[in-house]
Design brief:
The protein has about 120 residues and is mainly beta. It contains no helices and twelve strands.
């Protein structure tokens, strides 16, 4: 059974940091393209970062230089280090995997595998 379980969300002040974790079971992150999606209230899900099976990483312009994605193949985990958080970073963050990690999806369920999400709140 495939499961993706996110953790690490919480409430921080602007300028603070959080580290999100995604525990994956049922497939190997080493063989897969993994992504973190951000859904702000009332908005679609936006791909903010991805790490491909070859280890290459990509970031949206909105988080470039502030967020870092990584993975631990031995633990089958994916992480998102979020620094210098801004109020507009608030929302639900989903860990997902798909052969086609689109930049925007209207619902996270459009992707092949996804977690239930973890909530990030950033106060100004």
């Amino acid at each position: 059974e495939v499961q993706l379980v996110e953790s690490g969300g919480g409430s921080v002040q602007a300028g603070g940091s959080l580290r999100l974790s995604c525990r994956v079971s049922g497939f190997a992150v080493d063989d897969s393209d993994m992504g973190w999606y951000h859904q702000a209230p009332g908005h679609e899900c936006e791909l903010v970062s991805r790490i491909n099976n070859d280890g290459t990483t990509h970031y949206s312009d909105s988080v470039k230089g502030r967020f870092t994605i990584s993975k631990d193949n031995a633990k089958n985990m994916v992480y998102l280090q979020m620094n210098s958080l801004k109020p507009e970073d608030a929302g639900v963050y989903y860990c997902a995997s798909d052969e086609d990690l689109r930049t925007v999806v209207f619902g996270i369920s459009e992707l092949r595998y996804w977690g239930k999400g973890t909530l990030v709140t950033v106060s100004s």
